[in-house]
Amino acid sequence: MYIYDDFDRTLVQERVREFGDQVNRRLSGELTEEEFKPLRLMNGVYLQLHAYMLRIAIPYGTLSSDQLRMLAHVARRYDRNYGHFTTRQNIQFNWIKLKELPDAMADLARAGLHGMQTSGNCVRNVTTDQWAGVAPDEIEDPRIWAELLRQHLTLHPEFSFLPRKFKVALTAAAHDRAAVKIHDVGLRMHRNGAGETGFEVIVGGGLGRTPFIGKTIKPFLPKRDLLSYVEAIMRTYNQYGRRDNIYKARMKILVHELGAEKFAGEVEEEWQAIKEGPLALDAAVVADIAARFRYPRYELLADNPPELARAREDNRFRLWLDNAAINHKVAGYAIVTLSLKPEGGPPGDATAAQMDAIAELADRYSHSEIRVGHEQNLALPHVAQRDLPALWRALDAIGVATPNVNLISDIIACPGLDYCSLANARSIPVAEEITRRFRDLDLARNVGPLHINISGCINACGHHHIGHIGILGVEKNGEEYYQVTLGGRADETAELGTILGPAVPYAEIADVVEGIAAAYLELRARPGELFIDTVKRVGVDPFRERVYAAR
Amino acid sequence: MTSPLQQKLKVTGPVVVTANRLGDGAVVYRAADGTWTKDLAAAAVVTTTPAALELLGVATSEKVVVVDAYVAPVELTPQRQVLPGNLRERIRSSGPTVALPGQC
Amino acid sequence: MPLVKAGRIVEDRFVRVLDEASIPDGVAVILPAARLLADARDLVLRQAATGVVWPNDRKVAELAPYLDWIALVALVFPNFRDGRGYSQARILRERYHFRGELRATGQILRDQCLFLQRAGFDAFELTKDADAAAFVAAVHRYSVFYQPAADGRASTLTARLARVSQH
Predict the structure, then answer these.
(1) ipTM for this model
(2) Confidence tier at C157 by pLDDT (50, 70, 90)
C-alpha cells in the first residue's frame, strides 16, 4: 500500500487545521449553515436524522492495520463503537458530534486518514477493485494510477465547486469488479498491440434518478496522458455541466444531452491545448509514487500445502474455504473475504472490537494490510494458504466467517431511513429479514451467486439498478413500499435491471425475494446456470408471473 | 419520506417544531418556554398553520443553537401523550429501528 | 464589499459603468461585456484603464482579441458554489497569458481565497469584512499543493522530481 511522504502528511494536517477553524466559525455564528454546509461536506460531514455522520476515505479500498486500529479508536472515542463500510470503499461513523470533529480528524490524520472530498460537489474517493495488486487476472496494479489521480484531484483549485459530485473508478482486470461503467469517469487498463498498457476512458456513467451506463470516448489513452486527459474532461464538465437543476447536474446528463461524440470532441479540443503542458506524466514522477507502494516479500510457497489439504476434512472449514478464499496471483497465497453480512445483522457494519481483532489478524496473516470492497465486505489480501485453517478459526470467533460471500444473503444496502435524511424507506431491516429467510446455507449455496442491492431512495447509494435483484424503497401514502428489478449487472457487461412488477409493502418484500429465488430454482436450465444467466435467458416475465400470481 | 425541509407548510393536525442541535446533531424539539428539549413530551404542540409558522420563525432565527428546523406532525393520544406522527419522526425520536452492531 | 489586492484591503480605483451610461474620461472603468464588444474600437484608444466584467457562462476565448490592452477582467461567482469562474481564470492566465488584474466578484468567502489565487485571481471583492481581514491567513493555510495551477506555486510534482534528481 501507499506510504505517505512529508507532503502527503502535511497536506492532511493543514486541512484538519483549516476545518477546525471553519467549525469554530460555525459554532460562533460567524458562518451561517448555508455557508458552512458545502465546507463541511467537502470534509465528509453530513447531518443525518439523528446526528452528524463522518465519512472517511479509504483510498482505493486499501487500509493498513494501524489505520484500522485508528478507525476502531474513533468508533470507541467519538461514536458508538461501530462503523459502516460503504459502497464506495469508505467508512461512515453515524453519531459524531460537530464540536468533537476537529479532535477526531486530528486523530485520523495521525494515521494518514481523512474525510477530504468524501462528499460535496467535488471529486470523491477514487475507487478500484478491492483485489487490486493481488488478483490473478490483473494486467498491473491500478492503485498507482488511482493514487496519482487522487493526489491530482485533491484540493484542486479549479474543480472544488463542480456542478455536482464526481466519481472515478479504475480496473486493470478483464473482469471488472470496480463497476467502472457506472462512474463519471471509468478507466479500464488494457494492453495494446505493442504490449504497452494504457487506459480505455469511459464517461458519463451513474445511477440515481436517471441511471446511465458510461460510454467509451477514448479506447486507448497512454499513461503519460492520464492527468491531462482527465483534466480536460473535468474542465469541460465544470464549464458546461448544468447549474440550474441539481437533478440534471451530473456529468452523465451532459454526456447524454450533448451526445458522447460531441462530448468527446469538446474534451479532445481542450486536451490538445494542455497535453504537452506540466500534466504530462514524467516517468520519474510515476516511479516516485510507485516506489512508495510497499508490497509484501512473498515466500516461495506451493499451492494447496499439506496443512490445507488436511484441514479440508473439516466440513465447516471446507465450505468456508470454497466460499471465501480465492487463489492469489502468487502461488501458495490466497485472498480471503471477510463477510460483514451476519444473519440478522446490518450489512457492512463492524464493531470496534471486530476492527481491532481484524487488524491483529492482518498483522499476523496478511502483512498488515486489509481491503475494503464496494460490496461492503472486507478482505485480507496476502494470506499464505498454510495459515488459512488458523485464520478461519479466528475469523469465525469474531463473526466474520459466514460463508455467504456472493450469495443471496451477501446483501449490499445503503443505511436507509434508519439513518439517512434523504431516504424514503428503510433498507437495513429488509436486508436483515432476507438474511434470516436464507439462513440455511445449503439453500443459499443451492441458489448460488446472486447479488441483492437495496437502496432506501432514488439516490441509489445501494446501487440497486445494477443488482441481480435490485430493491428500491419508495413512499406511498406515508407507508414504505419496495420496487423490485431483476437482471442488473455491475461488471464489464453492465446493464440496468428491469422492473419486476408493482411495488410491494414492507411486510411482503422478503416474501417476494423468496418467491424470486424459488422461481429461479424452478426455471434454471441446470444447477450450474447462474441466477443472472437464467434471467437473461428467460427474461423477467416468467419471474413476474410466479411472484405476482398470489398478489 | 420526502424531506420535510422541502415541503410547503400546511398544518392539518397537531405539529411540533423540531431540529438538530448544532453542536452534536441531536434531535430536539421546541418547548413552550422557548428552549430546545430532547424530550418530545415537553414539546410545544400547535394545531394551526400561523402558530406553526410563528414557532418555526422564532426557531430558525437562532442560528447557533439548532440547524434545519421544520414542522413535524405528531399524534396526540387520548391521554394527551405526544407521539411522533410518522415513521421518519418515530425514527428521529427513538433512533434506528434496528439493533446497533454489538448490541444484538 | 472590501477589495483585497496584494494581501491588503485597498480602495477600488475602478468605477463600474452600467449598460447605457456614458463612460467618464480619465477614469478607470469596468464595463459590461456587451459594451466592451460593441465599442472595442473606441475603447482601445482610451487613456485611462478599461476593464470588463465577464459572465461565467460565456467562453473567455471571446475576450482574446482584447486581452493585450484591457487592464482588468472581473469574473463572477453568483454564489460561491458555482465554480465556473475558476476554469475561466485559468484559461485567461495559462492559455491567453492575460497579465492584467483578474478580479473575483460575487459571493466570495475567505474559504475560497486560496483556490481563487491558485486559479490566477489577484484581486478579490470579498463579501464580508472579517474575511477581508483574514485574507492573508487564509492564503497561507497550506504549504503543499498537489497540482500546478495559474499561480506559479511549486507543486508536489515538481518538488518530488527535484528530490529524486538530488539522489
Answers:
(1) 0.96
(2) confident
